[in-house]
Amino acid sequence: MQLYPAVDPIPLPAPIWLFKLLHIVTQALHFVAVEMLLGGLLLAVLLSLFRGSSLSHVTARAMARRLTVVMTYVINLGVPPLLFSQVLYGRALYTSSVLIGIYWISIIAILTLTYWLLYQFTGRLEAGKSAWWVGLSAWLLAGFIARLLSTNMTLMLRPEDWQKMYSASAMGAYLPTGDPTLTPRWLLMLAGGLFFGGLWMVYLAGRSTFTAEEKHFIGGLGGKIAVGFGLVYLAAGLWANSVQPDAVKEGLAGNGTYAFYKYFGLAGYGWLALVAVAVLLAAVAGFGKIAANWLSWIVVLVAVLTEVMFTVYRDGVRDVTLLSKGYDVWDRVVVTNWSVVGIFLVLFVAGLGVIGWLVSVMARATKVMEGAA
Ligand code: HEM
């Protein structure tokens, strides 16, 4: 039986490796922003409960102020990987998106509400009002969006179920829960959120807009949180890996159709090593009580590399799973349109240059101390 819809007769306009490279880079950056949102928001909510402590209040408000900006990155860095994955995996991803269509399209409304609640959360903190219930509502909605994304990313890997589901109902009202990889995968992202949230606090502790007392509070607390949830994140990663089918583990060891997937598998070890390094750095901040600019930037570098490794491994899991069910992402007709590829790359680099310039303007702007009212 034909499991997948027919392939689009229009050839791909660029090499598959280029699509995959751009997909992995933009996806990893989306994940950095997602983890900051999922973890940073929950930590800011918890800190906002201690309204009597000025250190907690300043930290919660500093994180909340940045979260509205983080959300723009979540969205804008989510669009490119969505486009690249539709190009590479459209026959699988469109099908699963149709099956959960009502929930899938509802992400736009839920996201808008989450964004509005984030602004309300920040506004209430600025005004010194109780804000935890607003922030918690935003976090629950963001966690639900994450659940919907995990649902779709796992359903797209189960072509054997689509026909049966669609024949039973074409309403698009499914919200499947039966896949054994779904919940570990979702919880891995949530645990990662608190780990990255702690690392984000270690980064903030190196900023000059905080007083020495605030730096020690933020770095010390963030470091301890990152140590604790770094270990939870490691355990969740091992769990999410252990529930993968044997065919996937074999493929990632290089014993499948394509031996080069062993490098995707090796990225899993890279992820383990980088999380361990990040936990050590967090321990330096948390227990060694060191809040410094150099530590901030090393933590940023290690955090971004951790997400890159995670994304490569996750990409390998998807490719090998689909391969075991007859979907070969490398098997497509490619007619490269080099002039378009060239224009794209020039604009891509120019875009990075503009972002760099924006960051430099921000860095040169007059600093206002975070504790100021
Ligand atoms: C609060 C907002 C959001 C949260 C919490 C969130 C969270 C997540 C999570 C947890 C995953 C991984 C799912 C898994 O593999 O198990 C994911 C993947 C993804 N997200 Fe987001 N996301 C958000 C918004 C967006 C938006 C607005 C877009 C696009 C416009 C987007 C695009 C994507 C794409 C394309 C993937 C995976 C694609 C692939 O694997 O090829 N996300 N997101």
Description:
The chain is mostly helical and 373 residues long. Helices cover 76% and strands 0% of the residues. The chain has 12 helices and no strands. Bound molecules: protoporphyrin IX containing FE. Protoporphyrin IX containing FE (HEM) binds next to helix 1, helix 2, helix 3, helix 4 and helix 5.
Question: Summary?
Answer:
The protein is mainly alpha-helical and 373 residues long. Helix content is 76%, strand content 0%. The model has no long low-confidence stretch (mean pLDDT 96).
How are the secondary structure elements laid out?
Layout: H1 16-48, H2 54-76, H3 79-99, H4 101-126, H5 132-155, H6 159-168, H7 182-204, H8 212-242, H9 246-252, H10 261-286, H11 293-323, H12 338-364
Bound molecules: protoporphyrin IX containing FE.
Features of the shown structure:
373 residues; mainly alpha; 12 helices; 76% helix; globular; binds protoporphyrin IX containing FE
What is the β-strand count?
0
> What bound compounds does this protein have?
protoporphyrin IX containing FE
State the end-to-end CA separation: 66 Å
Roughly what fraction of the amino acids lie in strands? Answer: under 5%
From N to C, what is the helix and strand string? HHHHHHHHHHHH
User: Low-confidence spans: pLDDT under 50, at least 5 residues?
Assistant: none
- DSSP helical segment count: 12
Which bin fits the share of residues in helices?
Answer: over 70%
The gross shape turns out to be globular
Give the structural class.
mainly alpha
The average pLDDT score comes to: 96
Radius of gyration: 22 Å
What does the main sheet amount to? Answer: none
